[in-house]
Amino acid sequence: MKRKKLFVAFMTFAVLAILMAVPALADEEVTFADNVAKVNDSINSFVWTAMLFAILGVGLIMTVITSFFQFTHFGYWWQHSIGSVFKRKDVLHSDDKKSISQFQSLCTAMAATVGTGNIVGVATAIVSGGPGAIFWMWIAAILGLMTNFSENVLGIFYRRRNKNGEWSGGAMYYLKDGLGGKKGFKQVGAFLAGLFAVFAVLASFGIGNLSQINSIVTNVTSTLEGFGVADQHVGSFSLIHLITGLVLMIVAALVIVGGLQRIAQTAEKLVPFMAIAYILGSLVLIFWKPGMILPALGSIFKFAFTGRAIAGGTLGTVIKWGLKRGVFSNEAGLGSSVMVHSNSNAKEPVTQGIWGIFEVFADTIIICTLTALAILTSGYIDFESGQLVDQAISASALTNVCFSAVFGKAGSVFVTLALVLFAFSTVLGWSHYVSKSWEYLLGTKSTIIYRVVFILCIMLGAQMTSSLAWDISDTFNGLMALPNLIGVLACAGTVAAIVKNYKDRVFHGKDIEPMLSWNQEIQKEEEIGFHTGDD
User: Fold this and answer.
1) How far apart are CA 65 and CA 143, in angstroms?
2) Could you tell me where the DSSP H helices lie in 66-185?
3) Are strands 160-161 and 237-238 parallel, antiparallel or unpaired?
4) Residues 6+ positions from 108 with CB-CB distance below 8 Å
5) 267, CA 20 to 30 Å: which among 38, 102, 343, 534?
């Protein structure tokens, strides 16, 4: 076992070292980097085309087997997720010091999912796929509601305590014990669990760290230059990037080294503030030109079914960009946020599953939609062609330009601050996600090593100029989805049984034993003090 763990550690660090070295090689125009980019582009294209079909397919299957729960029980899951914050103290605070509250788990999960994709990603979808891409983003989210629900149901059902007494859950465990518990699939389940954990670790350094930090320093530099603050260089290093990276690294260290409790405490304060501030800012911008709202909405539906939606590849340009950005934004199907939802003090799997529904709804249906409408009502998109009016504006700068057009420099500052908060919170959320994957591979005590390396990588992200490392991490992110979706599908019957059990008890008043855990010891432990429908 020790040899296996050492091998996994070696391979993880080896790939990570290559990942970090690639930007430097690329800057020197070394052929190796170009070859790596070509190979990765081919793999990435195949992986994400396949994964988009798989993610949507699994979402549809889980929607059907749960009897369209996201629609038929809309009021119920809304009332028992964010609505319960105002009614129950245990939703906000956990008496168990080894777990976090349901609200904290939501905030920590949203800290990771609400990121640059909600601002830059939406703009990229509109520029590349036209306004119709937003319609397909909604489709991805609607199906993703039940994918995320199912992941969280399985996360709670298959979780267990680690050596520190903390809950550990995620795709690793429902692959190992769910899929692996089926006759003849023990080795397959264990292999896929390890594969998911390795892909999650590798993806975390790009999607959850380097790219987010680079987005922060790039936007900070651009905003400062807008105020006449010129960047200085120390050798080949940008001074603004160095200072920003150092500040971010110190703040991140203070939070991340403190473990889940400190990350959750930070997230529950940061996420509501940044989400509400961004929502209000977007609404002001949207209603600044009220006459543009209906035409903007009309353009979304108009261009969702045009020729571009069908042409341009396997899925079509519009459909592909909408679905891809939707999945990137809410991460439903990747198996990432379930690793923090599993730390919740909720005893009932369906209870935490409901929070997963709200997470995707808030991320994509609310925040991404507001970004889209803010862009579409600004006048920078031609509703006849679906193209940018000014082709010189880049996708990464579009949202900033829209806010600046109305609010001047204050708009630019607002978007920059939103990006900083969104991106930095993503770093915090992902630091926990992958500490759980690392823990699965190498044990609880070794997670401090991962945290230190993760924190040091912040400075690397602040100095990166190449996007190749991000693209490689994007591929690993897609590869995470493969074993996770296999696990969700393999355990679809379990999800259906848990949901039926819950409905029978809560909606139909049947006096039957609740399905709380696959492990009978945990099942008995969780039943102590358990109240049906109110855990």
Assistant:
1) 12
2) 69-72, 74-79, 89-92, 102-113, 120-129, 133-157, 171-173
3) unpaired
4) 100, 260, 263, 264, 267, 268, 340, 428, 429, 432
5) 534
CA pair distance 32, 53, nearest whole angstrom = 32
Q: How many C-beta atoms lie closer than 10 Å to residue 421's C-beta?
A: 21
User: pLDDT at residue 323 above 60?
Assistant: yes
> What is residue 36's predicted lDDT score, i.e. its pLDDT?
67
Q: Are 128 and 317 in contact (CB under 8 A)?
A: yes
Lowest mean pLDDT among 17-31, 128-142, 437-451: 17-31
CB 345 within 8 A of CB 96: yes
User: Would you state the structure tokens that stand for residue 319, as one six-digit string?
Assistant: 């459909």
Compute how many other C-beta atoms are within 10 angstroms of the C-beta atom of residue 440: 25
* Closest to 145 measured CA to CA, from 324, 333, 310: 333
Q: What is the DSSP letter of 388?
A: B
pLDDT at 153: 96
Residue pair 104/268 in contact (Cβ under 8 Å)? The answer is yes
Rounded to 5 degrees, what angle do the CA atoms 278, 280, 286 make?
Answer: 100
Phi-psi group of 519: left, alpha or beta (phi > 0 → left; psi -120 to 50 → alpha; rest → beta)? beta
| Sign (positive or negative) of CA dihedral 215, 217, 218, 222 | positive
**Each residue of 337-370: pLDDT tens digit?**
899 999 998 899 999 999 999 999 998 999 999 9
Give CA–CA dist 451/476, Å, rounded. Answer: 19
Q: Over 50: is that where the pLDDT of 313 sits?
A: no
Q: pLDDT of 109-147, one tens digit each?
A: 888 787 777 888 888 888 878 888 899 889 888 999 999
Alpha-carbon distance 447 to 439, whole Å?
6
520: left (phi over 0), alpha (psi -120 to 50) or beta: alpha
Contact (Cβ atoms closer than 8 angstroms) between residue 300 and residue 292 = no
Domain ranges for the chain? 2-199+257-407+461-527
For residues 452-464, one letter each, b for 16 or more C-beta atoms within 10 angstroms of the residue's C-beta and e for the rest, the string is eebbebbebbbbb
pLDDT at 22: 47
Integer Rg of the chain from CA: 22
Q: Report the pLDDT value the prediction gives residue 470, as an integer from 0 to 100.
A: 63
- Cβ contacts of residue 278 below 8 Å, gap of 6+? 367, 370, 418, 422
